[in-house]
Structure formats: C-alpha cells, structure tokens
Amino acid sequence: MGNKFLVAAYCCTWAIQLGYLLWMVVKWQSQKSKIGAGK
Amino acid sequence: MKKLLFLLVFLGVAALMAWGFDQAMFIAPTEATMGNVQRIFYYHVPHGMLSYLFFSINFVASVLVLAWRRSNPAKALAADAWALAGAEVGVVFSSVVLITGPLWAKPVWGIWWTWDARLTTSLVLWLIYVSYLLVRRFAAGPEMQTLAAVLSVFGALDMPINYLANRLWRTQHPAPVIGGDADSGMAPPIATAFVWNIVAWAVWGLLVLAIRVYIERRQQTIDGAAAQAALAAD
Asked: Quick one: which of B55, B81, B107, B167 has the fewest CB in 10 Å?
C-alpha cells in the first residue's frame, strides 16, 4: 500500500530536479545561439 | 579542460546521489510502524532543510543588492544573480517538500493536507518566493531588482516562523526529530542514511545553484551588450 506513495514521491522529486536542470540546459543553448548571432 | 573538469564534478555528484538513493531505499532499515513509506523521509526532510539554505542565500544576496545598488552597481548586479539563483533553487527544493509531504501524509495520516501551522507556513513560504520570481519576470524597468530585493527581505521573515511552527504550536506535522525535546532523535542506521542524503542533495543543489548563477551572469552580459547596441543605434 505504502510503496506506490514512495515510488510517486521519489519519481516526483527526480522529475522536478531534472526538469529544472533541463530548463537550464535549454536556456544555456539559447544563450549560445544569441552569442553566436551577435558575433 | 574546463569541460572535462565540469564532467568530472558532475559524475562525482551523480555517484553521490546514487549512494544516497541506495542508502535510502536498500540500506536503511524498514521503519516498524509506517513500513516502506517512511523512506520518503530521506528525500522530504533534506529538501526542507536545504530550501532554508537557498532562501538564505537569496536573503543575503538581496541585502547586498540593496547595499551596493548605488555605491557599486557592478557588485550589485553580481549579487542579484545569486539572489535569483537562490530563489529559484529554493523554490525547486520547497516544491519537492510540498509534493512529497502529502504523498507521505495520505498513507500515514489518512489525509493529503491539513491547515496546521507547519504546513500552512510552508505553503506561504513557497508562495512568497514564487511571487518574488513573478515580480522579477513581469516587473519592468531598472527598479525591478530593488523591488525584488525588498520583497525577498520581507519574505525571509517567514523562514524562522516556518522552522519554529511545530515547536511553538500543536501541529499534525510531527515534532522535530533533530533539535527537538528529549525524546527526539533517530536510530543510528536511519541517521546514517539521512546524513548521506543531506550531503548528496546539498552538493547537487550547490552545483545547480552555481550553474544557474553562471547562466544569469552570462544573461546580464548579453542584456548589457544589447542595451549598448540599442543606445549606439539611437
């Protein structure tokens, strides 16, 4: 009974943390293209 | 060389995260009353503690923004990048707290949520920093950073209230297991897994914070160059 809540909690934690990291990668890439366009 | 160093640091952090996960899921003993669902503790509590760390970074950086905004604008801009990164990473960590908390409460208390002092002040803390980020996103003009810094200084007042909530008032949320009364504390194998997870998530959070500061500093350079180009075109 408790296990599905445990799995959900761990999955949500990783989804939030990796989602934020992914958002930063996207931002990083868009900056790179802006810097490239400015040169 | 820089890329290789970053890759090595990232792999080190990933190994530490895997070790923390192993400790929480497989090495720590199953708690007698709650069973396996108690293992949410190893993610929920470190995230709560570390959200204070990141909101404190936001607070200190915001005070520096206010102190330096006239005397040293370049330093104020650097402090502003730390303030933004602290708030964002803090919101990420406190979002995890607000999601894992109800997922632990439902099987143990029988309810997802209750408006007790600890839970309510946690939600208010999250809302304060989300509004801080919204102010930064939507307020226009050069005074945006000052406005956000002032909001941050007032927002930080909720941190001690949130921390003390289950010490000062009777709450559905359990009494503190660390620094609580004489009965508080953890069995050694549970404490070991807990400490490993605090260390792992702290290192992860600081790495993410450093990346975010780097990105924001680069954004400030891009925005500065764009503003210069616009002035030159006029």
From this structure: B167
